[in-house]
């Protein structure tokens, strides 16, 4: 059963039982039921299922399908990317990217011939991993850090470089494995001379500033 419909069923059963126990709850909508379980209201997924609309998961998959399709015009791909980026601002949706199989195809878009596609792929990655350890783990697992580092330093498009830096900055904060991978991906001359604590925001900012300056100097 669709998760949204499953929650809708549970919500209906719980409220039906509450009404049987207290008939006034059905006739007085203002009655506040203090004994009802807290946090059991309908979420957006359940409401969408009730209304017959696609779930966020379905929208995310549809967006990626449009992004990957050779039949989609660049403008349509940008619309799909924008939709995906907005959806994964929600932490639960970002965490669902793994189960939906979206990380690998998203990483593949970092090497697309179109600069706008590379830019949006990096942007989506940065959004997904921001303050989200589970997504940080997935970005690391698909080995995207070396690709993002290359884009940040060498991509001919300035906006691509900026979004790659944004993604790297979000990925390494408070996540030591990602920081270690970034350091190894950097050219020797850009690496910090000593070990950096991923939780030290000042030191992390310095690493990102070094990348940003190198990116600007290396721009065509």
Explain how this protein is built.
The protein is mainly alpha-helical and 220 residues long. Helices cover 66% and strands 0% of the residues. It has 13 helices and no strands. The chain has helices at residues 3-21, 24-27, 44-51, 56-68, 74-87, 91-96, 103-108, 115-129, 133-141, 145-154, 158-172, 176-185, 201-217. The radius of gyration is 22 Å and the shape is globular. Mean pLDDT is 86; it is low at 26-40.
What form results from the Cα inertia axes? Answer: globular
| Major pleated sheet | none
Please give the count of helices: 13
For the CA atoms, what is the radius of gyration?
22 Å
Counting DSSP E segments of at least 2 residues, the number of strands comes to 0
Helical proportion, percent range: 55-70%
Low-confidence stretches: 26-40
End-to-end CA span: 53 Å
Strand percentage, roughly? under 5%
Mean pLDDT: 86
**Helix and strand composition category:** mainly alpha
Order of helices and strands: HHHHHHHHHHHHH
């Amino acid at each position: 059963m669709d998760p949204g419909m499953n929650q809708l069923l549970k919500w209906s059963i719980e409220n039906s039982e509450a009404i049987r126990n207290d008939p006034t709850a059905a006739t007085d909508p203002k009655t506040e039921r203090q004994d009802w379980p807290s946090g059991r209201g309908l979420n957006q997924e359940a409401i969408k299922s009730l209304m017959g609309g696609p779930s966020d998961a379905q929208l995310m998959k549809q967006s990626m399908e449009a992004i990957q399709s050779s039949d989609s015009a660049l403008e349509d791909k940008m619309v799909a990317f924008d939709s995906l980026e907005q959806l994964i601002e929600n932490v639960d949706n970002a965490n669902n990217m793994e189960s939906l199989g979206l990380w690998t195809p998203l990483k593949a878009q970092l090497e697309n011939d179109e600069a706008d596609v590379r830019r949006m792929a990096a942007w989506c990655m940065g959004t997904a991993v921001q303050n989200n350890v589970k997504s940080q783990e997935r970005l690391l697992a698909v080995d995207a850090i070396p690709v993002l580092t290359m884009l940040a330093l060498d991509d001919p498009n300035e906006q691509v470089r900026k979004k790659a830096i944004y993604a790297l900055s979000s990925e390494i904060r408070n996540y030591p494995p990602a920081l270690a991978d970034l350091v190894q991906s950097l050219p020797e001359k850009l690496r910090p001379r000593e070990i950096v604590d991923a939780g030290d925001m000042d030191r992390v900012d310095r690493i990102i500033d070094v990348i940003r300056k190198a990116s600007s100097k290396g721009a065509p």
